[in-house]
Amino acid sequence: MPQGRDAIRAFVTALWKENPIFRQVLGICSTLAVTNLLANTLVMVAGLIYAAAMSNLTMSVLRYRIPRRIRIMVEVLIISFYVIILDLVLKAYLPETSRALGAYVGLIITNCILMGRMEAFASQNPPLPSLLDGLGSGVGYGFILISIAFFREMLGFGTLLGGTPLAVTVLDYSAGWTRWVLMLVPGGAFFMLALVVWICRTLWMRGQKEPVA
Amino acid sequence: MAKVKVVLFMVVSAAIATAAMTGTKILLGDRIRRNERLAEHRERLRAFGLLEGKADAAAIEARYAARVREVKHDGRTLYVAYDDDARKSVRAIGFDCRGMGLWGPIEGFIALDAELRKMVGFAVMSHQETPGLGGRMTDAWFRDQFRDKPVDQPDERGRYFVFVPETTSIGEGGREVHAISGATNTTMGVAEMLDREISRFRKDMEGVSLESIVGSE
User: Fold this and answer.
1) Is A176 a domain residue?
2) Residue A74: inside a domain
3) What are the tens digits of pLDDT across the range A27-66?
4) For chain B, what are the domain ranges?
5) Angle B162-B167-B173 (CA atoms, 0-180°, nearest 5)?
6) What is the ipTM of this complex?
């Protein structure tokens, strides 16, 4: 059972203790770009969880076979493979979502979290912990992005899940609410990101036995 | 020998990945092409005001086949929409247009009434703008606000539409339409495309009768 325990520990560590956004500051480009609409964010998060988990698993399975000097090239190849497959599946089965996200699906390839976790964890650990590390990183990235998107869409557009059949108007500007246009542009995401990182790091530090610099 | 092994490993890995991606593309290719054609037909029908709300693929294709005719005129494809399935009364004439957004080309579709005096609708077929910002030009509120706007005469600055902030209330019948908040360059790209393409189309159609267009194959 030790491997099972290791795997669970890897998941929790990636999710919280080594969270890619507020601990490692990875994946910031997409955090700024896609979080002004909750629906787009959810699809981006799902795509990243899938790509991170599968890339980590593949890297871990092949870790003794990949020549060390070309491992970065192989990592890019593995990530590209899974992201291109995801792009094709979205175009075939969720064409509207694929149209809405445009180039962002392809840009998952450049997300630092994927290569960072493959290099730091999957290349040195067995498949099950690596798979769960990828899942944990994806979920850890996801909950931060969803928190940011929730407030950006609500304050910027006054809606939640806008553009989908589940759209809800939360703040009606015709009833006097003024939209925060700042929240719609990437600059607004910086403020939200800083707030979320501050809150999460404060909570994280409370869980530490010794003070952290 | 070690170098050869490394090169061989990379070549074989790339070949396996490429084969798997190509296989997936072949497997899903028909469905992807069908989705693209369906999206194109749905957007044209919406621009013509022949489709409201959601409709399934079969209904969209059936309506498109019954109500829209593609004709070649003077080297370009025009789309003639009819009010009825018998194709007796022409509802609108549509044409493809192209402009530049912030990040890349915008491909659109403009539908004018048979007298070319009024906008019937507008649709964005493809774009590379930022999702959630410029990408909102595909939203219904943006697309539908051009319906019934007059295009018989541009203003003194050559504009058919005057873009105002999203929160400004606008009256009916005028040129004013809402811009996209946070996407000024995209809005300007759309405005420039609409002004240029409508002006050019109206000029090209001067002296051309509706019958000669409808009669074209």
Assistant:
1) yes
2) yes
3) 888 788 788 889 888 988 998 999 999 999 999 999 999 9
4) 69-214
5) 40
6) 0.76
- Written as one string, the DSSP assignment of B1-56 is -HHHHHHHHHHHHHHHHHHHHHHHHHHHHHHHHHHHHHHHHHHHHHHTT---S---
| Among chain B residues, CA nearest to A157 | B181
User: Does B127 contact A at CB distance below 8 Å?
Assistant: yes
Decide if A37 and B182 are in contact by the 8 Å CB cutoff: no
Question: Is A212 within a domain?
Answer: no
* pTM of the shown model: 0.79
- pLDDT digits over B133-152, tens only? 888 898 888 999 999 999 98
Classify residue A79 by its DSSP letter.
H
Q: Tell me the chain B residues in contact with residue A95 when contact means C-beta distances shorter than 8 Å.
A: 32, 35-36, 38-39
Tens of pLDDT, residue by residue over B13-24, are 999 999 999 999
pLDDT of residue B18: 95
Residue B128's closest chain A neighbor by CA?
A102
The B residues from 8 to 67 touching A (CB cutoff 8 Å) are: 9-10, 13-14, 17, 20-21, 24-25, 28, 31-32, 35-36, 38-39
Number of domains in chain A: 1
pLDDT for residue A33: 78
- CA dist A194 and A180 (Å) reads 17
Q: Do B131 and A100 touch (CB under 8 A)?
A: yes
- Asked whether residue A21 is domain-assigned, the answer is yes
Out of A40, A93, A181, closest to residue B132 by CB: A40
